[in-house]
Design goal:
Blueprint (H helix, E strand, L loop, with lengths): L3 E4 L2 E4 L10 H5 L2 E9 L2 E2 L2 H15 L6 H14 L7 E8 L17 E8 L10 E7 L14 H12 L5 E5 L2 E2 L6 E6 L2 E4 L10 H12 L4 E3 L2 E2 L8 E6 L3 E8 L2 E2 L7 H18 L4
Parallel strand pairs: 7-8, 7-15, 11-12
Antiparallel strand pairs: 1-2, 1-6, 3-4, 3-5, 5-6, 8-9, 9-13, 10-11, 10-14, 14-15, 15-16
């Protein structure tokens, strides 16, 4: 596949994409991003992803174009990179722009930098094998609800997890579980789902919200409320959600075996419900 990216009004080869060294995204991580999955050339849950993009932009005071611009950008990116029948992840980043004076307080007339690219994504229809994760203290900033490009805390946590051979940490603050650095979490106990409530300490995941809706359709109770670290040994099931992993069962947290260490029935039902929603999105009947 070709690799054509969008940068500030131009469509160019990825290797030719460049931004100023004075861009505030480079100097201060002053910007936001959004990720949209594409299944067989069709963006999945696009309106929800764009709504979160707009919210992040509002929260940090950046104004960029209108709704029509973003829809056209997404569909042009798919077309120009020949993803009409392929699966991918669209990455869109907006920074506050560039100014020669390096100052914490930005000037009033900056023109935002807008960048977008698409990369391959494996589309699966199976039940993922349960993974092992680790429990770490949440060291990130206090506005995790903004999808900020300032991800150093997330990176450090992912490195800690990789150092002990696991794919993802699950994070806690003051004894309460928040989320993962690249995922939301759901616990299962007595047939009901538990997940952290939406607030400034978690990213409002699109897949998180979608799974809550799928659970409601399946008659599975959902409790959006604080969940204690001390309750982890009593869980029947645990899974992670994100746009790239969809629904990922967890079999073990450090030395704690979740249930019997396998994918439990509630998680399995939601994996299949997620697959069914993809089939509907693609116009497949089975």
């Amino acid at each position: 596949m070709s690799s054509t990216v969008y940068l500030n009004g131009d469509w160019i080869a990825a290797e030719h994409a460049k931004v100023s060294v004075f861009d505030r995204g480079f100097l201060f991580a002053d910007g936001i991003y959004e990720v949209v999955p594409v299944y067989s050339g069709k963006p999945f849950l696009l309106e929800r992803h764009l709504a979160r993009l707009y919210r992040s932009l509002r929260e940090i005071g950046i104004s960029v174009a209108d709704d029509a611009f973003w829809h056209e950008l997404v569909h042009d990116l798919i077309k120009r990179n020949n993803y009409g029948d392929a699966n991918g992840l669209i990455y869109m980043q907006v920074t506050r722009g560039a100014e020669a004076s390096r100052t914490h307080l930005p000037g009033p007339d900056l023109k935002p930098t807008v960048f977008a690219t698409i990369n391959p994504l494996a589309l699966h229809w199976d039940q993922p094998a349960p993974v092992r994760i680790t429990l770490l203290e949440d060291i990130r900033w206090l506005r995790c609800d903004i999808k900020s490009i300032s991800l150093l805390g997330n990176i450090l946590l992912k490195q800690q997890a990789a150092a002990v051979g696991v794919i993802e940490p699950i994070l806690h603050r003051d004894g309460l579980i928040t989320e993962g650095p690249a995922s939301n979490f759901f616990a299962v106990r007595n047939g009901a789902l538990y997940t952290a409530p939406k607030n400034h300490l978690i990213l409002p995941g699109i897949s998180r919200d979608w799974v809550i809706e799928l659970a409601a359709e399946a008659g599975i109770p959902v409790h959006e409320e604080p969940f204690k670290v001390a309750d982890l040994p009593q869980l029947d099931e645990l899974f992670l959600t994100s746009s790239s992993r969809e629904v990922q069962p967890v079999g073990q947290i450090d030395d704690i075996i979740i249930g019997d260490g396998q994918c439990g029935p509630v998680t399995a039902a939601l994996i299949e419900a997620f697959h069914a929603s993809k089939r509907r999105h693609l116009g497949r009947v089975s």
